[in-house]
Amino acid sequence: MKKYAVVLCIALAATLALAGSPRMGYINSDRIIRETGMVQDAKQELQSFSAQKEREATEMQQEMQELQQQLEQQQLMLSEERQQEMMTTLQQKYAEYQEFLQQHFGQTGSIAQKNEELMEPIMEEINKAVQQISEEDAYDFIFDSTVGLIYGDPSYDITDKIISILNAGN
To answer: GO cellular component terms (predicted)?
Structure first.
């Protein structure tokens, strides 16, 4: 997909170059985020949220381990029926644990959702700054080097301008 986007951008740039010389620039959004310090509060909130989920997962693990130890220690004294009940309980707890991990630590889990929720306003601020620079300096295109720019002449890098605008606003 990125390959097609790059080819499309090159084709578009070549077409526009024939029609006139468009003004282009690029940014490095990772560097902007890192150097403006915009994510500190969001990062701290996400770490706190993630740590809580990790504690909950650890508690679930400990509960399963205790049940497993109890089963092993009392195996000779328990009836076959009681052993089966404990094994079923252990299997249910394991299934709940796996579901918990998927719900919170999976690719679309609550931690990933929380990260998106926290990053959305930050990305909106970056986009506003990019829009401002594009209007002030008459850029036709601004690319993000973190999502598909193979090469960019450093003279077209406007990352420092974006960082300056964002830092001035904070």
So the answer is: cytosol
